[in-house]
C-alpha cells in the first residue's frame, strides 16, 4: 500500500511514546476492571470505529465574507485523496472519503477508484449538488431545484442526482446524500405545501432508480441559504419525506443544522426508534451552522448523541449509520483538524461504551435523576485517551497523529508541489 508519511518516522515517533502509553493503558485497564469493564473489549470496538472524511474538508473553508487559502491546498480530487490518505494513515479511523459532484467528478471513474485503492481508501456516500448552477447548465437553481415551481428545473435536478448515483456505483459507494438549499426569503414567496409535495415527488423519482443495496439519505437544515423558510428545514420534514419515499430512504442528521439548544440526542433517538436514522454529519457550533471542529464547543452533546447510538446498538448490533465529518476549516490545517476531529468523535463513542447501562436503567426506573445523570457523567469524565492511542498504535497509526504529521513536513512538501491558485475562491460547505 502506498503511504505518504515515512514509516520509519512514524515508528520512531511511536517508539518514543510507547512505554508511557503502555503504563497509562495498564492503569486505565485496572481502573475499568474495578467496574467489571474489560478494556480489551473496548479497545477492539475503538479499533473497529470509522468515520468518513469529506473530500471538500481537506481544502481550507471560508465564510461568506472571505476565504484565506492555506499553503499547499489540494487542487483536484487526486490531491484531495493524497491528503485523505495521510489522515487515514496516522489516525486509522477514516478509511472512506465522501465525494461531492460536480466538484470531484473524475474524467475516468475507474482510474479514480484505482488511485484510492493504492491507499486502501474507499468511497462513502456520494453528495449531489443542486444548490449552485454549473457551467453549461440549461436551467438555473436560483429559485430552487428539486422543489422548483418549474417541471423542467426539477427534471434537471432529478437527472443530476441519478447521474451521481451512476457514478457512485462505479466507485463502490453505497449511498446518495441529498441536501437542497431550496426555500424562500420572504413570507408569501413560496407555497409551503406545493414545494414540499414537489420535493417528495422529485426524490421518489430518484429513489426509483436507486440500486437495491443503496440508501438515500435526506439532510435537513433549518436555514441558509434561504432565510425565511427552508423546504427540508427539520427532522420532521425529513422523516415525513423519507417515510413517503421508501424503506431505504432515511434521514441524515448534521449536528449544525438545528436551532440553538435543540436536543439533538433526542432527535437521534426518535428517528432511530422508527427506523429512519441513516447517517450523520459531525461538526460543532456555538451560534448557527458554524461548521466548527467536532467536539470543540460541546463535547458533552457529542457524547450524549453516542450514548443514544450505543443504546440502539445494544438492541440491534448490526445497526451502523453512515458517519461523516462535515466541517469548515478556516484557521487550522485541514489535515490536523480532520485527524483531531475523527479522534474526538471516536472518543465520544468509546465513552458511551463505558456507561453502566444496568445502573442507568435502574435509576430511570426508580426515578432517581441525580444518580441517573451521575451515571452518564461517570463515563463521560473518564479519560479514555490511552484507549484511542492504543487503537491507533496497534493499527499502525500514530500514537500522536498531529506531532507525527508536523514532524513529517508533509504540508511544506505540498506547499512546494501545489502553488496557491489566486483565482480559487470557493469554499463549499454543506
Ligand atoms: Mn452536512
Structure description:
This is L-rhamnose catabolism isomerase. Keywords: Isomerase, Manganese, Metal-binding. GO terms for molecular function: isomerase activity. It comes from Rhodanobacter aciditrophus. The radius of gyration is 22 Å and the shape is globular. It has one domain (52-354): TIM Barrel, CATH 3.20.20. Helices cover 47% and strands 9% of the residues. The chain is built from 15 helices and eleven strands. It is of the alpha/beta class and 430 residues long. The chain has a six-stranded parallel β-sheet. The protein has a three-stranded parallel β-sheet with strand order 1-2-3, covered by helices on one side. It has helices at residues 7-33, 39-48, 77-91, 109-117, 151-171, 192-207, 235-245, 264-273, 299-315, 334-353, 357-365, 369-380, 385-394, 401-408, 410-417; strands at residues 53-54, 96-98, 122-123, 126-127, 175-178, 183-184, 215-219, 229-230, 249-254, 277-282, 322-325. The longest helix is centred in the N-terminal third of the chain and has 27 residues, at 7-33. Strand 1, helix 3 (77-91) and strand 2 (96-98) form a beta-alpha-beta unit. Helix 3 packs across helix 14 (401-408), helix 5 packs parallel to helix 6 and helix 11 (357-365) packs antiparallel against helix 12 (369-380).
Amino acid at each position: 500500500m502506498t503511504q505518504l508519511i515515512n514509516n520509519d518516522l512514524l515508528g520512531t515517533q511511536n517508539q518514543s511514546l510507547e512505554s508511557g502509553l503502555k503504563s497509562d493503558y495498564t492503569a486505565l485497564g485496572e481502573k475499568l476492571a474495578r467496574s467489571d469493564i474489560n478494556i480489551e473489549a473496548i479497545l477492539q470496538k475503538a479499533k473497529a470505529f470509522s468515520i468518513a472524511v469529506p473530500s471538500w474538508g481537506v481544502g481550507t473553508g471560508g465564510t461568506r465574507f472571505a476565504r484565506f487559502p492555506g499553503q499547499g491546498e489540494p487542487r483536484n480530487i487526486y490531491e484531495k485523496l493524497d491528503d485523505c490518505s495521510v489522515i487515514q494513515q496516522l489516525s486509522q479511523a477514516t478509511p472512506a472519503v465522501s465525494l461531492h459532484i460536480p466538484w470531484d467528478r473524475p474524467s475516468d471513474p475507474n482510474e479514480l477508484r484505482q488511485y484510492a485503492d493504492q491507499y486502501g481508501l474507499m468511497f462513502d456516500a456520494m453528495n449531489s449538488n443542486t444548490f449552485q448552477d454549473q457551467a453549461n447548465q440549461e436551467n438555473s437553481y436560483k429559485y430552487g431545484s428539486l422543489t422548483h415551481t418549474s417541471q423542467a428545473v426539477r427534471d434537471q435536478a432529478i437527472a443530476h442526482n441519478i447521474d451521481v448515483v451512476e457514478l457512485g456505483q462505479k466507485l463502490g459507494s453505497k449511498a446518495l446524500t441529498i441536501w437542497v438549499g431550496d426555500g424562500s426569503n420572504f413570507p408569501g414567496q413560496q407555497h409551503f405545501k406545493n414545494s414540499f409535495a414537489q420535493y417528495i415527488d422529485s426524490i421518489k423519482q430518484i429513489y426509483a432508480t436507486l440500486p437495491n443495496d443503496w440508501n438515500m439519505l435526506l439532510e435537513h437544515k433549518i436555514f441558509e441559504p434561504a432565510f425565511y423558510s427552508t423546504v427540508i428545514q427539520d427532522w420532521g420534514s425529513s422523516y415525513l419525506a423519507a417515510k413517503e419515499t421508501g424503506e431505504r430512504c432515511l434521514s441524515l442528521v448534521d449536528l449544525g443544522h438545528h436551532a440553538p439548544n435543540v436536543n439533538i440526542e433526542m432527535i437521534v433517538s426518535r428517528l432511530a426508534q422508527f427506523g429512519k436514522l441513516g447517517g450523520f454529519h459531525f461538526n460543532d457550533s456555538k451560534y448557527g451552522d458554524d461548521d466548527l471542529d467536532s467536539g470543540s464547543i460541546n463535547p458533552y452533546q457529542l457524547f450524549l448523541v453516542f450514548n443514544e447510538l450505543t443504546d440502539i446498538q445494544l438492541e440491534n448490533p448490526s445497526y451502523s449509520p453512515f458517519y461523516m465529518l462535515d466541517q469548515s476549516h478556516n484557521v487550522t490545517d485541514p489535515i490536523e483538524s480532520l485527524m483531531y476531529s475523527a479522534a474526538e468523535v471516536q472518543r465520544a463513542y468509546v465513552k458511551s461504551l463505558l456507561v453502566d447501562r444496568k445502573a442507568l436503567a435502574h435509576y430511570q426506573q426508580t426515578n432517581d435523576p441525580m444518580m441517573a445523570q451521575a451515571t452518564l457523567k461517570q463515563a463521560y469524565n473518564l479519560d479514555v485517551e490511552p484507549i484511542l492511542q492504543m487503537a491507533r498504535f496497534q493499527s499502525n497509526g500514530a500514537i500522536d497523529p498531529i506531532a507525527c504529521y508536523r514532524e513529517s513536513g508533509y504540508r511544506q512538501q505540498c506547499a512546494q508541489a501545489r502553488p496557491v491558485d489566486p483565482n480559487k475562491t470557493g469554499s463549499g460547505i454543506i
